[in-house]
Design brief:
Distance between the termini: 10 Å
Order of helices and strands: EHEEEHEHEHEHEHEEEEHEHEEH
Number of domains: 2
CATH class of the largest domain: Alpha Beta
Shape: globular
Number of helices: 9
Radius of gyration: 20 Å
Number of strands: 15
Amino acid sequence: MVWVVSLPGDPGLGPELARHIGATHSTFFSKRFPDGEVYLRMAERVSGDRVLLVQSMYPNQNDRVVESLLALELLERYGNEVTLIAPYLAYSRQDKEFLPGESISLRSLMRALSSMGLSSLVTVDAHNPAAVREFLGSKKYVNVVPVEVFAGALRSYLDRGLTVIAPDQGASERARALAEKLGCGYVVIRKSRDRVTGEVTHSLEPLEGLRGVAVVFDDIVSTGGTVANIASFLTARGVYVVLAVSHALLVGDAPEKLTKSGIREVYSIPTVPVRVPGVRYLELAPYLAKLLREKEII
C-alpha cells in the first residue's frame, strides 16, 4: 500500500498527489512545547508500507528540518519505506566551502536525512542537484525540473517573438531545456559575485537588440534584485518581460521591486506554503505523479 503523508510544511501538494496516484492521504499531528521544541504524532498508524512524505522546508526552515528528521525516524521505526518529497529544499545554496572555515549546510542536511532511514529523496528544481546527489550517497535521488509545466503556460507568447533568458551561467541548462520545449531561442547572462561583499554584477550586452517577449527563467527568486535589474534593462528597450520561477519566495519588498522593473507576469509552482498575490501558480501534482511512476518511486 502507498501512503502520501503530509508534514506541516506541505504546500498543498500532498492531497493532490495522493489523488493523482490513487494513494491514501494522511497527516501528522504536530504541536510546539512551551520551550519551543517540536512534537509529532501520526494521525493514522502507518506501518510496513511505502510512504511519500511531503515537506517543503520554507518558511521556518529550522522547524521544517527537525520535523522531517522526526518523521523519518518514526516512519522507519514502523517498518515503512520512505521517500521524502521536498518541493523546496532548505540549506541547499551553501553547497561548498566558498570561504575557509565555512560549514557546508547541504552536506550536513543530506547526512542527517540519510541517517534517519530515508529510502529516496525527491526535490523540485534543487539549486545544485549534482551536490545533493553527491552528499546523499547511495540513496535514490530524483530532481524534478518542471520545464514541461512552464512550457504549457508560456506557449501563448510564441507568436510575439519569445526568447528565454538565463539570469546566470548556472541557469543555462534550465533555459536551454525550456527553449527547446518551446521551439525558441535563449540567451545566457554572465553574472559575477564578490564572495566577501556579496555584490553582484551582470554582463547585459547579450540582451541588446532583443525584441518581443523575454521570459526570465530561474530556479529561485528571493529578494528579486537580480531579476529586477535584468527586467529594467529589457523594459527600457521595449521588451515585454515575463518571469518564470520554480520557487517564488519574493521576500520583503521583492513583489514591488519586480513590478517597478516592468515585469508583466510572474509564473511559479506551489513549492512553498506562502502564496504571493499576483503570482500565477501552475499545477505540479499531475506532472510529479507521472514522473514518480517513470522513475519507479511508486
